[in-house]
Design brief:
Strands 1-2-3-10 form a four-stranded mixed sheet, with no helix packed on it. The protein has a four-stranded antiparallel sheet with strand order 4-7-5-6. A four-stranded antiparallel sheet has the order 9-8-11-12, covered by helices on one side. The protein is globular, with a radius of gyration of 19 Å. It is built from eight helices and twelve strands. By secondary structure, the chain is an alpha+beta fold.
């Protein structure tokens, strides 16, 4: 499967709205997302090893824990249960604010209501989750004010937007249309972030990715991640990382990524 970008028609507008970093004028390169198919030659983006490290929430949490403040406190649920003597109601003791959410290590849930939360465990609604514990993480619950999407490629953040359409009515309409067409809800991560907040998100992303060594890859390998980032009272925090081809480009903007 190949992804080929095309240079935006108006680079000044694209740079101003999305913060896109354009490279040299001539030339172009075809990037290949490698975790679904095997090819040789050209330039490889997100090979199996990188895809696994970032798409698995458990692995992602362990990697980002190397950079202080990057993510909320996160454990593998199985490991967390061992820490509290396999007593689910004691799980809250692992977190300073005594509040958490439990998420599957892969895939995505449609809304926050689908997550298992502290109150669910307190009520004893945990049998299925506990039985499947190796496939879940438990994470400190964040108070999220807003969510953003930041596209990272080899040390650069090339587009920053809202995670969802900010206007509720427009977002709901978009979701209805998206569901009819694609049978999925969500998305709409194309409304741009501008000004100081965009710079803050760019610097946050680049700093933590540098701290974990994400910029030190072999020359023939690239890492592209579309990060979901939460704005919380404790500052910006990574929520999760998207490495699939569906998040490779911004819906309103594709860029000719030059080597």
């Amino acid at each position: 499967s190949f992804v080929k970008g095309y240079r935006a028609k108006n680079e000044k507008i694209a740079s101003a709205i999305y913060g896109v970093k354009f490279a040299k004028k001539d030339g172009g390169v075809v990037f290949r997302h490698m975790h679904n198919a095997k090819f040789s030659g050209s330039h490889n983006i997100n090979p199996d090893s990188l895809h696994a490290l970032f798409s698995d929430k458990d692995m992602f949490g362990k990697i980002m824990a190397q950079s202080k403040g990057a993510t909320p406190l996160t454990y593998n649920l199985d490991e967390a249960l061992k820490r509290v003597g396999n007593e689910p109601k004691k799980l809250k003791e692992l977190f300073p604010k005594k509040d958490y959410v439990i998420k599957p290590v892969d895939g995505a849930l449609s809304s926050f209501d689908d997550f298992v939360k502290t109150a669910d465990i307190e009520k004893g609604n945990y049998k299925q989750v506990i039985r499947e514990s190796p496939g879940h993480i438990i994470q400190e619950r964040m108070k999220i004010n807003k969510e953003y999407r930041a596209h990272f490629l080899n040390g650069e953040v090339y587009a920053v937007s809202h995670r969802n359409i900010p206007n509720e009515k427009i977002r709901n309409l978009y979701n209805k249309i998206s569901y009819k067409i694609n049978k999925t809800k969500g998305g709409g991560a194309f409304v741009p972030i501008v000004g100081k907040k965009r710079k803050e998100i760019e610097e946050f992303t680049k700093l933590h990715m540098k701290n974990i060594g994400a910029n030190d890859l072999p020359k023939d390998t690239s890492l592209h991640v579309a990060f979901d980032i939460a704005d919380t009272p404790d500052g910006l925090k990574f929520v999760e990382a998207n490495t699939s081809m569906g998040t490779f480009t911004n819906q309103l903007l594709t860029v000719n990524l030059t080597d």
